[in-house]
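I am writing to request your help with a piece of structural work I have in hand. I am sending you one protein, given as its amino acid sequence and as whole-number tokens for its backbone shapes. Kindly check, if you would, that the fold set down in the tokens agrees with what the sequence suggests. You will find the record immediately after this paragraph:
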Amino acid sequence: MNTLTVTPLHSLPASKANQWLQDGFSLFKQAPVKLFLFLLLPLIIEGIFQILPAPYGMLASKWAATFVGSSAIIVIHHLATQKVFSLKSIFKAKNWLSMIPLSAILASAFFIQLFVAKLLLGNDGINLLLFSQPTEVTQWQLGIIFASIIPVTLPVSFASYCVLLGDKNVLQALKSSLNAFFYAFKPMCLIALISFLSLLLAPYTFLLSAIITGPILTCISYIAYRSVFIKNKEA
């Protein structure tokens, strides 16, 4: 059982992030184009759901994008272990039923973005995010709204891995991810800073900063999961 015992003296140093970055980028380089194209799928699915009447379409789109996006975990795991990019590996994965409620929990971080939008723009911020109503918003405000999701999702960033690769139920996965957050707090925060900056800069780059770094950061996240859980189990 990959259970973590977390104490102040038993935690990963910040320098571990350097190894995650190197190994994650090496993993990405095995199939860069395929990973890039595949990870556009959640964005496409999200856009399709947003065609539905607001606010239900917007809320459903966040769940759908989170659920579909979790399939990248299986694809990247197969790439890392079998050295082959395979979409078929998605259908071999177990525990997909547990991803239905977990995706809803993870997608609820959208409400943090709504809260930040409300603080920055008032009711116009809610109308912008929830009903896609045009409003006056600066690039830095939009960047902060996008990036505000990172601190909230960081403690549960391993939950999907624990469900799909660790065969845990939803509660066990959330607890394990929270333990991992404290165990690897320093390197996880450094990696999260990159995610934060990529979203912060998204309005200035026509979303390219997030789209380009997304597949690389997903590979890095997988390497971090293996470092925290698999190697800890073997130790």
Residues 124 and 229 are 43 Å apart (CA to CA).
